[in-house]
Amino acid sequence: MHVFVTGGSGLIGSPVVTELLSHGHAVAALARSDASAAALDAAGATPVRGSLADLPTLRSAAAQADGVIHLAFSNDFTSAETVAHGIAEEGAALAAIGDELVGSGRPLVTVSGTPQALGRASTEADPIPTDGIVGGRGLSVTAILDLASRGVRSVAVRLPRTVHKDGAGGFAFLLAQIARGAGVSGYLGDGSQRWPAVHALDAAVLLRLALENAPAGTAWHAVADEGDTMLDIATVIGRRLDVPVREVPSETFGPLAEVFAADQPSSSAVTRRELGWEPTHPSLLADLENLRP
């Protein structure tokens, strides 16, 4: 299969490109910079110069592909405005790619976060949230899944709030960055809120399986760790960075405070059973031991 990948040089995208190539697929991947293009070329993929804002480029690349995996996102969480801009940009890009694939029967795999289910771990059957600071991503993914009725094998892989590799990645890594700046590894309330996680290499396997096998209009959970507490995560970060660990005010986490405060464990039991996915790489708490002081 000839696969077009957005975000192919990132923490998740790089393993996805390698995973696809190692299973016989050809890969073309979006590259915003010379450095990204060089990394993709070295990996064996064909760079496609452009960004998520280059809708004609996205349409052209999608038209030439047998399938698409969308991973690119601005990941600028400095303010509510930058988050909203990134969500709007991604939504327009997904709509352009989806329109190009209508009636083709080709797969379009996109990503979102795992949902929240009060008092229990969320499952693949739970709806993705469409409100709150990141609700716009839920609306975009829902629109893509609806393309199943228009001849697109659209699939969503729900990623947990931390996708990690070698001590970096996801919201846990943001916690570490904030801890470096504040001189304290902080948590909200009593720190009992649970965060699901997955290693980037395990997520890459699931994204390939979804591309190859998942039915149209379905959602799957890339969850290896059902839910580590914020306190446990902050404790490892504090030890690795040699800073105190304590409760901090919500303002410490800026626009993400609402997300960080939510208890959001998640299950991947259906995904494992139906797609034959089994995570094999280190857990989040084990991987955070690679965090550099």
Automatic annotation (TrEMBL):
Membrane-crossing segments per the record: none
Pfam families tied to this protein: Epimerase (PF01370)
Signal sequence interval, chain numbering: none
Domain NAD-dependent epimerase/dehydratase: 3-76
Gene3D superfamilies assigned: NAD(P)-binding Rossmann-like Domain
Stated name of the protein: NAD-dependent epimerase/dehydratase family protein
Organism placement in taxonomy: Bacteria, Bacillati, Actinomycetota, Actinomycetes, Micrococcales
